[in-house]
Amino acid sequence: PVSVASDHSDSPTVKLTENKNGDIADLYVFREGDQSGNTADNSKLVFILTVNGLAVAGTGHEFSTDKQYDIKVARDRNNLAATSKTLSFRFGALSGDGRQKIWLNGKFAGWTTAFNTTPTSAMVDLNGSMAKVFAGDTDDPFFFDLRIIGPNGEDPSPTGMPTPADTFAGSNASSIVVSVPVAWFQTAAQEKNFFSWTTVAK
Fold it and tell me: pLDDT for 50-61, tens place per residue?
């Protein structure tokens, strides 16, 4: 069976301030053309990794300097390890202007690059191809009403379903956004389907 889920609230240990910048909330993957409406952009894949969910908007949250944020992409769901490629992100210390240096590593493509991006986006030349990268705080894009989930998954309201309300409205998540060519993950077979997941670890 396949389970699709969002994870925005964890154990007390994970919720500690020093750990939340490594607490994965969501991973979104789509063709750039699906958002822009330009079919020419379908040659690029967009990955959005969010951590530090339910952050108070306007307070600013930096990425960890001792964690590695990985986005993994595989061609074969039955052979993930052998067919996966990894985009790895690491961050430097927060500077006085609110920026962090970001290291983006793609060992499979033979490159490593470092540039300042947060809290603004950047265009970078990676392995002869242009990629777009953003890292910083964003409005949490996930919609969920925590009021309707009881201890056992039931609706706790005695009078039925309440009017929907977004628990995440007005809260932020720390987001890593990267748009890269689909060709980076393809072989000569020009695969169209991929399987993606993310990890954060020291």
Answer: 988 877 777 667
